[in-house]
Amino acid sequence: MTVIHPIRLGLNIDHVATIRNARGGNNPDPVRAAMLAVESGVDGITAHLREDRRHIRDEDMARLKLEIAKPLNFEMAATEEMKKIALRVKPHAACLVPEKRLERTTEGGLDVVGQRDHLKLFIAELNEAGIRVSLFIEPDRKAIETSHALGASVIELHTGTYCEAFAHGDHQRAAHELARLNEGAAIAGALGLEVHAGHGLDFATAKKLAEISEIREFNIGHFIIGEAIFIGLHHAIMQMRAAINQGRTRARPR
Question: What is the pLDDT of residues 23-43, one digit of tens each?
């Protein structure tokens, strides 16, 4: 029987850096946002250092590791450049994601099956350095089973397709994607993988997905940062936490 744990909330601060970089200079400071988020009760900070440095910069990662009092989740492509940076920064966790230069945001899950040989060695090096490895994947049985075989201890299920269908009122597609996420979480849990989820989540979709008993952590960025413009970062985090907690009360053991 699945033990139902509280869901941790990780805040992705990339888009604070996006605003900073639109004008150059140092403001708003994503590290300051991360520290305020920690004071407001988030369980960790996520930052994606992209190849083109469109938002988070190398110095941001170094400062985050030194200055925040919660775990740092380093989102990164599985490249030699990013591996060297991760081994230098030593974050709590590294979440390997697909990355295309022209995409606005991450599009879909990592092709763990097609990149199996490359990822096996890559993950082993990070594990040896004491960095917990997560793989951002689709809720697909083969991808989940491959992630387990590769030595990852965590998977993060891509929730973007579900969230998009929900936002557009496509109830049939949303129900289909929700079923896929439910099934994927169950498969992963049975294999002993810790299950995280993220991408496109807002108050309503996070509340609904919190009902999936295997999910242990949400990583949410764009929506919370957007809400912070109107109600402040502290209140946006508090409202997200309340939505997640409310959804969790409806989770049922398998």
Answer: 989 999 999 999 999 999 999
